[in-house]
Amino acid sequence: MTKLIASLCVVCSLIGATVATNTANASDTSTKSLPSETEIKQQIESYIKSEMQERRIPGMQLAVVRSGKIVLLKSYGLAEIPNAVAVNDQNVFSINSATKSFTGVAIMQLVEEGKLDLSAPVSRYLDGLPVAWQAVTVRQLLTHTSGIPDIISSKIPSLATPQEVDAAWAAIQTWPMEFKTGERYRYNQTNYILLGKIIDRLSGMPFIEFFQKRQFAVAGMRSVGFGESRDVIPHKAVSYRYEEPGGSLRHIVETYPPFLRTGAGMNSSAEDVANWLIALQQGKLISAAGLRQLWTPGTFNNGKPTVWALGWPVMRQGEYAAVAGVGGARSAFYVYPGHDLAIVTLTNLAGADPQGMIDDIAGFYLPGLRKAHGGAYAAHLLREQIAQDGYAGLAAKLNKIKIDKGLPDPSEDDFNSWGYRLLSKKMADQAVTVFGLGVQIYPNSANLHDSLAEVYEFQADKLAALKHYRLSLGLDAQNSHAAERIAALGGK
Q: Whose CB among 92, 174, 277, 379 lies 3.0–4.6 Å from 267's, allowing a Cys bridge?
């Protein structure tokens, strides 16, 4: 089933108050047992190299921010494979949908200038919109709760030329709403097109220029910019993806017409993103009150918090609250507002899912985070153990790691991502073992049963595939993929 990608978020709630405790809680409760800074860097180095091999990541940059300073900046691997060009700190990577976090800041800058009201309908700022769109608020655009149809659709095969863009924009305005505004969350690029138009109008300049003047220049970002595959971008790391399952490495060709670039299309180095995060938290871009508002989720019509704040996915609530920018399943940054920590991971592999590594990296600085939310690190240690003595007795090995290290179980998504990576390496038997352990721990996970069924189908084990597709459909009657595969396999 669908793998963990850029914008997947867990349950979240209001975290604005956490920002105010930034200094008070800057030290993790377990810091007395922390190793030295040198030892932490060595441990991170070992972890990164292991995970790059596991995820087959060609090239990567890492930046860690603490106390308003970059305390770790490191480049790994290759920016371009054929000519063996090594990644360096000046390389820029596609950050894709993490661009939306910058758009959220731009919107808050307009709010603080008194030019924009987050609760106002979009029709206050833009003319000529469809009637059904006009009552949607600016906040609902930012939090993906508008119900407006998404321009990234199978109905629109290409946005490569100005003529195609104009035709698509005209067409989408005739489509029905996808749901009642404020009732649901659905990730949507149209929302951010509209936000770009608002920024253009209220700032009096194209949004790209507004970003440059009000964010990039202020934060001292030297190499950041907008661009896509057709552009010549200095120091750009080549983007790759693996054809699946078990396929070869391919170049990615992506087109981002200008009107989409408030939702995706930025390229940056990890150092530049880190400096931007420092400027943001030091009040150089928006005020402290604005920052709290930026990182506070919206509200559904039923009063529950949305899974996005203002351009930022909210990854976790509570003591180790985190907000993020995540893009293209290849680049991500997390901010832990209550612990004075931010981590930036940029890669040139779509499907690397570096957001799955960030809590692990943060855990080297925040032991309490690892104890509470270190399931992904447990999976990492389990893979290290497998490298020594194989997949036999996987459940027992995991239990020993959990007891010895005081770690929780890996999450459903941890198992799902791991299993699909194995399948992409043509290791289907091992993928069955991993997914099998996942469904043992999470027997009510429709997603894991569906994923296990896919691997069995790949192995031509029809009976086992049907069994788990049926289990998945029984757990989630809306799982159209399972229903389609059951029918295709001749099941009932």
A: 92
